[in-house]
Amino acid sequence: MKPIQTIIIDDERLAREELKSLLSEFIEIEVIDEAHNGEDALEKINRLKPDLIFLDVSMPGMTGFELVKKLDDIPQIIFVTAFDEHAMKAFDLQAIDYILKPIDPTRLAQAIKRVSAENIDSMTSEEDIRSNKMLGPTDKVFIKDGEKCWFIELDKIRMMESEGNYVKVYFDQFRPMILRSLNNFENKLNPEFFFRANRKYLINLNHVVSVEAWFNGGLKVELSKGEKIEISRRQAIRFKEIFSL
Q: What CATH number has the domain spanning 132-243?
């Protein structure tokens, strides 16, 4: 299994160094960068697309919570802070865990174990994860949400919606939630069939029943079950380039 690519975000250099030293004991974690404030972190997360971030809550200029709200695609999050009063808000943002400073190595190990488990429990089968194959409509995928499981053809999936650290998958009457970013799905699914409408939605083109012009040069599509999704202006240009005669 490939390492979990990680960015450490903390305004205190010594805190970053301490955490990096602790994480060096975990072979499943690969620290690919670090950031000293929210703006620095925002640029690096969007560019490097890590699987996981260790995020301080209290930072000058932009708090950890404010940073999360600015992200288009949110990686898994472990908040690291000296204060425990923010815990409820952290879990409202679907954080994997919330660790208090100074960091207890045993507590850190518990959080890493939780992250590793979530990475294993994913939509795509282990065989497909190991391969570079792009998945198309006739490929079957395993989906697990809590105690419920499905094994379905991708063409049944009308769309995927980003919700914090999770993606909501729409098929039949079901809406399971999967702990993964929308970018991860977009990179795995054949773009001839699955199109990124905007930062929040990935749609199955086989389920598009109508297209209409929308505001500011965008488009609006209606799917087979009546959902109406806006294609952003930038993506509308790409849509027209790909599918126009």
A: 2.40.50.1020
For the stretch 205-235, pLDDT in tens is 999 999 999 888 889 999 999 999 999 988 9
Among the listed ranges 72-86, 116-130, 188-202, which one has the minimum average pLDDT value?
116-130
- 4-120: in CATH 3.10.180.10: no
C-alpha separations of 172 from 156, 159, 169, 176, 220 in Å: 7, 11, 10, 11, 22
What's the whole-model pTM score? 0.52
Asked if 186 and 95 count as a contact pair (C-beta separation under 8 A), the reply is no
Q: CATH 3.40.50.2300 in the chain, residues?
A: 4-120
pLDDT tens across 133-179, in order? 688 888 888 888 888 889 999 999 999 999 888 899 999 999 999 98
pLDDT confidence tier of residue 241, bands split at 50, 70 and 90: confident
CB 182 within 8 A of CB 171: no
Q: In whole angstroms, give the CA distance from residue 136 to residue 154.
A: 7
Name the nearest CA neighbour of 21 among 92, 108, 138. 108
Supply angle C-alpha 93, 95, 99, rounded to 5.
Answer: 125
Tokens of 56: 């301080």
**Beta bridge partners of residue 175, listed in sequence order:** none
Burial class of residue 38 in the structure, from the number of CB atoms within 10 Å of its CB (0-12 exposed, 13-18 middle, 19+ buried): buried
Distance (Å, rounded) from C-alpha 227 to C-alpha 223? Answer: 5
